[in-house]
Write a structure and sequence with these properties.
4-stranded antiparallel beta sheet, ATP-binding, 5-stranded parallel beta sheet, AAA+_ATPase, 231 residues, alpha/beta, 8 helices, single chain, Rossmann fold
């Protein structure tokens, strides 16, 4: 299946065709065990410029849904449209390319490579887009400074705190100006001041034309979003 992309790219900023949603989910069904559905005919639309909070009790499938939205899991049925194109049945290699070009992801546990430096962890996604680390290093260093990661960038993830690791993961996700940014409890290990910094950054990213989706248990974070979808 081919995937025609209705966008044009100017520099590092991608512009959608007017009226096309970055992400559109239609009647998605997902189950880990046959007969036990985690999601049953779930649908939602995510607009550019908007921050959506996914909330609900533990075990309701919020993280699973985020992995589906990020094209890391496949639904049993239903469709996921990215920029107006149904990408549900694309080959794995096509999905990987699409993720690298259009998505940023902040994992709940940061998911940093312990064998690489902090700077390499932030810049590694550039390689999947055919960019060199050197070309994106200035932006990576700017992001680390913005989020207060005031430690030598050559240090390894094992030498930083959980809160610092989460901020490093956010820098990695923001590096390529993704048009769809997914974050799984991005403020879970952060103090109130840093939580505000991160939420403000996600809102700023949305205002620059991205669709931002956050899984959170925090009522304060959910209240700062443009809308809340409860599972």
């Amino acid at each position: 299946m081919s995937c025609a992309h209705p966008w044009e790219t100017v520099g590092s900023v991608s512009t959608l065709t007017p009226g096309v949603l970055p992400l559109d989910v239609r009647d998605v069904v997902f189950e880990y065990v046959p007969g036990t559905r985690v999601l049953d005919s779930w649908s939602a639309q995510f607009e550019a410029g908007s921050v959506t909070a996914l909330t609900g009790p533990s075990g309701r499938g919020k993280s699973t849904l985020l992995y589906l939205l990020g094209l890391m899991l496949r639904p049993r049925s239903g469709s996921i449209l990215v920029d107006g194109n149904d990408v549900t049945r694309l080959a794995d290699a096509q999905l990987a390319h699409l993720r690298a070009e259009r998505f940023g992801f902040v994992f709940q546990d940061a998911a940093l490579d312990p064998s690489r430096s902090i700077l390499d962890n932030v810049t590694e996604t550039a390689l999947y887009r055919g960019q060199s680390r050197r070309s994106v290093t200035p932006r990576a260093l700017d992001l680390l400074t913005r989020f207060g990661v005031d430690i030598p960038p050559k240090r390894k993830p094992g030498q930083v705190s959980g809160g610092q690791a989460q901020r490093i993961a956010l820098c990695r996700a923001l590096l390529a100006h993704p048009k769809i940014l997914l974050a799984d409890e991005p403020t879970g290990n952060l103090d109130p001041a840093t939580t505000t910094l991160v939420v403000d950054a996600l809102r700023d990213h949305a205002r620059n034309g991205a669709a931002v989706i956050i899984v959170t248990h925090s009522p304060e974070v959910a209240a700062a979003c443009d809308r809340e979808l409860r599972l």
